[in-house]
User: Which sequence fits this backbone?
């Protein structure tokens, strides 16, 4: 709408006046206005999401705590977007010929840095983490790791219960921040064998180097994205005469629109790749644990606790789901038992 009405130009002029014609500062002021506008328009939907989670007792946050999280999320988003957008318009202004290649390379470096820093800087803004104390579980993980000839540097208890009833686990970080995080909602309600099955799945992501590979995939998709952005910006200047230069930051909504559109189109491919990784991690878990039954029961518990859709429609799963449906994961585990059974 900003583009169609030309209001984006009015916002840019205001940003210039407010910054006393200072380019980088004007870019930042424009970004603040754009993100705030987006947040306000989206807040109705955000609140609706919060109400739904409350209604089905998935969230146990009070309104005030939720609002505080929203504020923190907005500020974190503004900080990250601020870094990317300032960088983007700096290269657009200084190197209009090859800006998109340089911006792509810089974003790639930022991805790697963020993957490494997220578990120690980003996640603690929203959740508390502490090293896992349970000696039995630690010993199990060491044994799993030894068999895989690998070592995960840490397992952390993820204090999820203060906000949510859902259970979750993940492999995060890069290099010396690589760690497995296990929600306390999982640790408190699952048997040691079930937790071991979840740990084995996360270890599967580690063994198959999924974080590194995902960064590679991101590099590929953002390369296409920046190429398309270069084309769109040139088209908006040369043919449509919407802006006078590439570095006119009133074109930021155009870039956002393009990124959303391409992101949506790329979803089926990216999610298919993610589901492929998840199946690989599941298969790894099945070979690493002594019995398959705890794997299946942990899946059932997760589905019940998180109110997951066990059998989503094929299309919804294909387009939107990063994980195979629970029913498929259980079916695959059962098929694995059949195939592994000695004749
Ligand atoms: Zn996984």
Assistant:
């Amino acid at each position: 709408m900003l583009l169609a009405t030309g209001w984006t130009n009015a916002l840019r002029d205001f940003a210039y006046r407010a910054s006393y014609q200072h380019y980088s500062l004007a870019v930042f002021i424009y970004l603040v206005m754009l993100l705030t506008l987006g947040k306000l328009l989206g807040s109705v939907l955000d609140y609706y999401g919060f109400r739904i989670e409350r209604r089905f007792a998935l969230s146990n946050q009070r309104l005030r705590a939720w609002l505080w999280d929203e504020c923190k999320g907005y500020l974190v988003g503004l900080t990250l977007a601020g870094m990317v957008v300032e960088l983007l318009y700096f290269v657009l202004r200084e190197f209009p010929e090859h800006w998109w290649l340089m911006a792509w390379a810089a974003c790639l470096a930022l991805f790697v840095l963020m993957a490494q820093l997220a578990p120690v800087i980003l996640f603690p803004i929203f959740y508390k983490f502490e090293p896992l104390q349970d000696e039995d579980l630690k010993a199990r993980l060491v044994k799993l790791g030894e068999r895989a000839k690998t070592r995960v540097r840490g397992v952390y208890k993820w204090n999820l219960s203060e906000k949510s009833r859902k259970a979750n686990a993940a492999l995060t970080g890069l290099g010396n921040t690589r760690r497995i995080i296990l929600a306390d909602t999982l640790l408190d309600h699952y048997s040691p064998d079930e937790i071991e099955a979840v740990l084995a799945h996360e270890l599967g992501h580690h063994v198959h180097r999924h974080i590194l590979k995902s960064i590679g995939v991101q590099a590929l998709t953002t390369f296409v994205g920046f190429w398309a952005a270069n084309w769109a910006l040139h088209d908006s200047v040369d043919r449509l005469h919407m802006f006078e230069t590439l570095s006119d930051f009133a074109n930021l909504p155009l870039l956002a629109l393009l990124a959303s559109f391409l992101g949506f189109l790329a979803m089926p491919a990216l999610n298919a790749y993610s589901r492929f990784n998840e199946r690989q991690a599941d298969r790894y878990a099945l070979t690493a644990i002594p019995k398959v039954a705890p794997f299946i029961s942990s899946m059932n518990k997760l589905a019940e606790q998180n109110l997951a859709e066990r059998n989503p429609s094929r299309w919804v799963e294909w387009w939107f789901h990063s994980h195979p449906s629970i029913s498929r994961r259980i079916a695959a585990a059962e098929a694995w038992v059949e195939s592994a059974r000695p004749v």
About this structure: The two ends are 66 Å apart (CA to CA). The chain has 13 helices and four strands. Residues 252-288 form the longest helix (37 residues). The first strand starts at residue 128 and ends at 131.
